[in-house]
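Quick question, first post here. What does this chain look like in 3D?
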Amino acid sequence: MGKISFRKLKLFILVTIISIIIVNTNFSKGDNSKMNKIIYPKAPPKVTLYDLSIINDEKKWTVNNVHDPAIIKADNGWYYIYSTDVKVGGVPKPGIQIRKSKDLINWQFVGYVFNGKDYVYGGIPKGAYEWTQATNLWAPDIKKMNGKYYLYYAASQFGKNQSYIGLATATNPEGPWKDEGEVIKTKQGDVVNAIDPCLTFDANGQPWLVYGSFFGGIYIIKIDKKTGKPAEKGFGKLIARRDMSVQGAIEGPYIIYNPKFKKYYLFVSYDSLFNDYNVRVGRSDKITGPYVDYNGKLMTDIESPPSEVGTKILGGYHFENDDGWIAPGHNSVLIDGNDYYIIHHARGALDKNWPYLHVRKILWTDDGWPVVSPERYAGEKEQVLSKDLVVGSWERIVLDPYDYLQSEPVKITLLKSGKINSENSSDFWTFISPNTIKLNWCKGKTKKVYEVETVKVIPAWDWENWKPTLVFTGLSNKGIAVWGKKVK
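> Answer (accepted):
Ran it through. Tokens below.
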């Protein structure tokens, strides 16, 4: 009996050890498999560019004819975009265009904020028209306050600052809307230009209006929460401007607060909306500024070269196998839970008369700067990645602040060894979990001086090659934005 028990005990121990080895092996395999099984976005609806057949059919516009888009997520769960009155190949109907979407990908045309015989040309409030003789309305913004939707709009004429910011309110994001009249107006000769309004809130819930375009720059003024109109006299405080050597080309301000970093972020658009529009950002501890860029330059700095002020995070570009985009700009920002998105228009490179709606994910650097996905949003999420997924061929784009039209792609290869392009190269890359890589570029000939680009990697839809892929976005240690897309 004793021998049988001993044999049984030996057999039991052996089986137990084998079982533990199998379980641990399977767990290890399962863990690696899980790491590599990232979720890629599905194919979005294709957008036919420069489609003349839809010009007179608003229901088919979807992302066509979108300029200066402002976004809000309404209480009914829909995302709404309100935008400037534009129409390719014809005279636009005035009144502020409205679109909506359930997923930020598929957009449908809803109608207009102002519509009917009570409005000049069927869509311009009388007060706005009498002051400006405008034939369409520009650059709206929308926020929820006091249980209502507050929509700010602008009326003016191109190149002038006889301008008018008005307010409309509604209890439903699709209307009906009530025009509440003048908020701020400027006359020809004033230093300020009353267009491009953005209602924003400080960390205590106090509303502010930031506005301005060219001329004297960007201003911010405190808003009375009950009326939605200025709580103080005057034009407010200057928070950003550009030198007149570039015609003071700054507009489209938008301010958000990020509670994680306890910072306010001012987004603005530089240069010409027809050609070299680009988005810059500065940040501040206070909503009224001062706002500084990545390198510490004030957004009001007119002593430095104009292209070196403001951290450029979006500009004209193209990847291989596509003509790309020019003049992206005049953005709004959607904060949806913990997710951030930049909403802007861009023009097709082959015909700049066509403006299109773009939605892109915003990621955040570890030191608190927003960076933008190089691909349009298709439902992707930031995820935990593994180093081996990053190995391969990429197209890299540097958003040089001096690039005035399109930034060009350059092929790079991230080798499994950690080298870039060649095993003999002094350039190398490192992976930092969960989804960061550092690209180290050797710039010194005798001493190894490195320029370092720290980027976040996320899944995305490759719009140029029509397949899922990985992309990266980030900043160099000099504050220059860099993009990448894996192609092999």
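The CA atoms of residues 37 and 385 lie 9 Å apart.
The chain is about 10% helix and 40% strand.
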